[in-house]
Design goal:
4 copies of one chain form a homotetramer. The first copy, chain A, is an all-alpha fold. Chain A has a domain of about 140 residues: Orthogonal Bundle (Tetracycline Repressor, domain 2). Chain A contains 10 helices and no strands. Chains in contact: A-B, C-D. Chains A and B meet through helix 7, helix 8, helix 9 and helix 10 of A and helix 7, helix 8, helix 9 and helix 10 of B. Chain B binds a DNA duplex through helix 1 and helix 3.
DNA sequence: AATGAATGAGTTTTCATTCAT
DNA sequence: CATGAATGAAAACTCATTCAT
């Protein structure tokens, strides 16, 4: 059974879910969780309001979907970076990706960071852990690279790196100044370049 | 003319305003701007809701008051630190103060950072600039210290330092782990210690 | 797909909207814009308050709907009068319709006039023009009849006629005396009868 | 006992009351009864809010005071007109006074008419009668002049004249067009001029 | 599965009036 | 008498969620 677009019902449903997820990620980033009405997401996805609840039982589930979307973006990025042979280059590629997003970040903040901060204020219920998970995913990947570089305390280094990103994003956003991303990005690249090579580990 | 507490009418009013401001700062930090109802602040201050509007015409003004309260705290801190003769020690004192707040920060985030992030999502209107101003105040103070140390690019150093604080606060909050504050704080102290002495400037 | 009343979903919604519009027109006329709460209109229409906002986004939109309702009534009346061959008779029919409403008018004033007067005090925003439009519609129709009678200055005559109506309505209302409508109505009929016949124009 | 301005206490109080009355008349005319807060009137009069209630027990009393102020203006005007020997000239002087006010009227409507219309929507309680009284005062004066001209049905003529004024004011206000006042005023003057001289009565 | 409509609790804000000094 | 402050009852509007087809 296919519709006019040649999609089966299940496929159409999946496509709608994806559209809603993408819309949620975008709108929640731009307007914030509390200021976003379900109707906003529905409209951005071109889905009637009532229908949203077929795919997501609560607003929280939409937030969770947005977090999942971010995880997806992150995975895609790290997969691409994974093709680079040198872990240092992979880390530098991450930083470069951040700087490339400077305008969006200066306008709306880091998608993950702002979401995590807002989720923290919501009544508890799974979302906290979901936000933590995305953050941890990023930390873990970075720690992995530092580890492969053979550096001591890779987890600490990861916290430093990701923390620097979150901090510069927040400042860039608060001051509405993308150049903060550029300058701090350059500093991070320098720092990564200057790191000694320990006993590199195989991946 | 004084009441039983020995306060004049005007003094009592000023005290109430201060109570409301303090309550606003506290509750807005803990629950976030959007999840805080005026009634929450009123209750925390022991003031009937309607009366709040005698002191603050809008919710935004309460947010602004909370920002002013933070500026006050910051000024008190920097004043205290200002008594230290060495700018490096002053910066280290700042970091130590951050670490001392680790539990609150891990639970609710940096008061200024979370507020700034939320304000960014609100409809524009003065608040953006107010948030930016508090951030800038902190940046400027830090830059001043770096400058007095005779270091190059004091503004950039300040962004790095304050950014690190914002980032570690966000991570500590997202992961609900105060130890992140401890570890990153230690790293910052090391970093400050390792900074070369340029041509120190007189204050 | 029809419900027990034989109405489709869309028809039921349209019916509800009409019910709300009619209720708005009635209640706003009787209680005035400022003294009418949305809840009053909701109750008069038998609709829960929250639901009103599904049909009308703001109170102003309800006022606008009431104005549209008046335009509708006016159009229906002029359509009926339009079947009379003589423009003079059409104008006299209008006056007679006013007099027929004397009791309501003495109690609540002219629906359009009182609404227009109240709208004038509201913060600007489209409503002023809407009110002016209804007034102009009436003026234009009257001017058209005078023009067809071949009289000079048909616009001026229209202002005189409609002005007389507004004035007598206001006095009847202020003095709570419907007989004012009767007497002034009779005078207007005399005046219309006494108007010379100019060079009648074809419609 | 006099203050620095050389006013006795009673005089000062009376002056304040007058200031409040004048402020009430002005502000209520411009903003309408419902949209005027006591605080607005207090501010316009330069009187602290709490103090208003010493002079006027309720908002309604302020409205009443505004009506009394209008009566005062009317009396002053008719007194001035009373010096003219010919009743016809006195009526024409009244019309001229209306036209002179055309800009204010086009902006805010006839002070008495708009107030009367709003009062009609308020919960009953004396105000209705007060408004009616002002209207009647004007009607009676006009009727008197027509009577002195020896014309039949002076009361009806008065209703026609005052009604015309109320109507043209409402139209001028709704359409925001002062020229309506000018044109209708001219017509009324013509009408008065054309009235036959009956058997003039002595005043 | 899809969808327009319904619901009801919650939030900010305004204001007439009162009160304590 | 004067006055800043207090109070509590509205009122408009929003929205997550549910429901009836």
């Amino acid at each position: 059974m296919t519709d006019s677009q040649g999609l089966s019902r299940a496929e159409a449903a999946a496509a709608k879910r994806r559209r809603l997820t993408a819309a949620a990620a975008k709108v929640l980033h731009e307007k914030g969780v509390e200021r976003t009405a379900i109707a906003d997401i529905a409209q951005a996805a071109g889905v009637p309001v009532g229908n949203v609840y077929y795919y997501f039982k609560t607003k929280d589930e939409l937030v969770e979907a947005a977090l999942a979307e971010q995880t997806g973006h992150l995975d895609a990025l790290t997969a691409r970076l994974g093709e680079l042979p040198d872990p240092r280059d992979r880390l530098k590629g991450l930083v470069t990706a951040w700087v490339d997003q400077r305008d969006t970040t200066a306008r709306y903040g880091c998608p993950t960071g702002t979401l995590a901060a807002e989720i923290d204020k919501r009544p508890p219920g799974g979302l906290d852990e979901s936000a933590a998970r995305v953050v941890r995913r990023l930390l873990d990947w970075a720690a992995d690279q530092f580890r492969q570089l053979g550096l001591p305390d890779p987890d600490g280094q990861a916290v430093t790196l990701i923390g620097a990103y979150q901090g510069m994003s927040l400042l860039a956003n608060a001051l509405r100044d993308p150049e903060i991303m550029t300058r701090e990005g350059a500093r991070l690249l320098d720092w990564l370049d200057g790191l000694p090579v320990g006993t590199p580990r195989l991946r």
